[in-house]
Write a structure and sequence with these properties.
Helix content: 40-55%
Radius of gyration: 21 Å
Number of domains: 2
CATH superfamily of the largest domain: Vaccinia Virus protein VP39
Distance between the termini: 52 Å
Shape: globular
Structural class: alpha/beta
Number of strands: 6
CATH architecture of the largest domain: 3-Layer(aba) Sandwich
CATH class of the largest domain: Alpha Beta
């Protein structure tokens, strides 16, 4: 098995596939969870490495197409519909208690991004939707009904847009907006974008709306806690993120749950840990090679963080002098 074979077999290219497999250290017969199935790239590679794979996705399209793909191609993959934050209850429903590995590929999938009708991309015109689960408020409903201040706050918090208030004002003045191209052009106009500019500023606005509408950062925090709960001692966690907001959450979680947070200072005295570490100290973050970025430009911003599960992390330690 090689990563190249896996990538060619999939309708998209899984990011950092070799590195994810290396972090998971799959032994034949182990149970591994792919919390973000998407187009199935990681699941397929994990199954071919000998794992019994339980895959999860909240997108009904991913579920329907994934089940058809599994039926056609085979492979030891069981696909469950739901958010990965619910993996503990989903695994219980599948009669699975503890698992040997969990992988999470955070954010929008290539499958969602490449389909104009899903409304995630600034590069193709489609309805202004952006819902991963295809339920709840659409992006159009939000930008057309929310107060200007609320839109600005979303753009600033989740898109790190420095001129969020100006963008929000332009959006409100242009309402109603129903198409991705309309919103993208409004944002570009607000920020003075020129076609020859290297970066399209509308990408930040689309990111912000997508994260907000799908509750992605809260989902990530709950998903990390769920992964900790389902991993057996010695189990491996691998998380691939694509921007600083996601990566910061993963980094802080692993530091906190491995007991490797920074020590005290004269402003903040050292506090003895109240819990045994749940994870071994994580290694350095892994980023894609130049050759991978050349093959798959979407890998450019990816970061992989991984850690190994220790014993029960909920046992209180006595304070040491």
């Amino acid at each position: 098995m090689t990563a190249i074979v896996q990538a060619e077999a999939s309708p998209h290219i899984p990011v950092l596939l070799d590195e994810v497999l290396e972090a998971l250290v799959i032994e034949p017969g182990e149970i591994h969870v792919d919390g973000t199935y998407g187009a199935g790239g990681y699941s397929r590679a994990m199954a071919q490495a000998g794992a019994h794979v339980v895959a999860i996705d909240r997108d009904p399209d991913a579920i329907a197409e994934g089940r058809a793909r599994i039926e056609n191609e085979g492979g030891d993959i069981r696909l469950l519909e739901g958010p990965f934050s619910a993996m503990q209850s989903l695994l219980v429903s599948a009669a699975v208690d503890k698992v040997d590995g969990v992988v999470l590929d955070i954010g929008v999938s290539s499958m969602q991004l490449d389909r104009a009708e899903r409304g995630f991309s600034v590069q193709a015109d489609g309805p202004l939707d952006m819902r991963m689960s295809q339920a709840g408020m659409t992006a159009a409903e939000f930008v057309n009904t929310a107060a200007e201040d609320d839109i600005a706050n979303v753009l600033y918090r989740y898109g790190e847009e420095p001129r969020s208030r100006r963008v929000a004002r332009f959006i409100v003045e242009a309402r109603p907006l129903t198409r991705t191209s309309e919103l993208a052009n409004v944002v570009r106009k607000a920020l003075g974008y020129k076609p020859h500019d290297k970066k399209d500023p509308s990408v930040r606005a689309f990111q912000a709306l997508r994260i907000y509408l799908n509750g992605e950062l809260d989902e990530l925090e709950r998903g990390l806690e769920a992964a900790e709960a389902v991993l057996a001692p010695g189990g491996r966690l691998a998380v691939v993120t694509f921007h600083s907001l996601e990566d910061r959450i993963v980094k802080q979680f692993l530091r906190r749950r491995s007991g490797s947070e920074a020590g005290g200072s004269r402003h903040r005295p050292q506090v003895a840990p109240q819990e045994r570490p749940a994870f071994a100290k994580p290694g350095k973050a892994v980023r894609p090679s130049a050759s991978e970025i050349e093959r798959n430009p979407r890998a450019r911003s990816a970061t992989l963080r991984s850690a190994v599960r220790l014993g029960d992390g909920n046992i209180t330690q006595e304070n040491e002098e």
